[in-house]
Amino acid sequence: MEKTQLIPQKSPKSNVGKRIRYMGVEPILFGTFNTVFMICLVTVTLYPFLNTIAISLNEGNDTIRGGIYLWPREWTIQNYKAVFASGTIIPAFWVSVARTVLSTILNLFLTTMLAYTLSRKEYVFRKQITFVFVLTMYFSAGLIPNYFLIKDLHLLNSFWVYVIPSMVSAFNMIVIRTYIGSLHESLMESARIDGAGEFTIFMRVVFPLCKPVLATIALFVAVGAWNSWFDAFIYTSSRQNLSTLQYELMKLISSSMNANSDPSVVNGAGVTAESTGSMVTPMSIRAAVTIVASVPILLVYPFMQKYFVVGMNVGSVKE
Length: 319
Fold this sequence. Notes:
By secondary structure, this protein is an all-alpha fold. The protein is 66% helix and 0% strand. Helix 4 packs antiparallel against helix 10, helix 4 (89-119) crosses helix 12 (245-258) and helix 8 (185-193) runs antiparallel to helix 9. The model is unreliable at 263-277 and 311-319 (pLDDT under 50).
């Protein structure tokens, strides 16, 4: 009988030790680099906003000296009192809220309905209509034809000029249509078997399943409507009761740039040092109005964020 000779193997302890040491150093280096990078990124991102808050809470004369970074030197709320004492900010705020809410709701509903229609393969003209909508993303008539169109529609100096032109968006339609195309067709088929019509399928099946993409689109539409001021400048500048908050902010910024030589005049709405009982400056007023205009969007965003990643249709169909 032949004897089998056992070849002794090297002990892997040395390799294991090196591997443990390597695996112990790599997470530490990555964690350190990631922490430092994220701190720098957060600092660069938040510093302008925190600096604006500090300036808005600092006394106007002291702000002119400069050197305000993250903490006010002389605390005051007189800048905010001056903003709200003008008499135009609060009405403009409610106009902006109304246009933002209506524009967002109508844009979501109508654009989603259009996207569902164009996502149906049995619809004969879906490619042609989609091409027409995509064409509007590349070619525009320009400002003057748009102005005459708004005028012919009798929307000048009307609140609906803020809402009607933005009821449907070609880009949002393409995004929502792509999302609807990813839904399982068996969901719609089961609803049809139960006798549901297309509108019922849209309202009770498709629309609820589109909550993630609708939340994203809603945030984009709301931010765009809230920050818009040019349409108020073009179409409703002669009606003070239709002025928006961002348009008032633009007027404050423009007037403050022209009033740097005379700090007692802050804006065209009559916000002066005499009217508020304390010295306010263009820089401090601009900071205060910027914070007032930013707070509503900052309050809405956390409620929309949870829909960005998690979908409502996860696990709804098992095939």
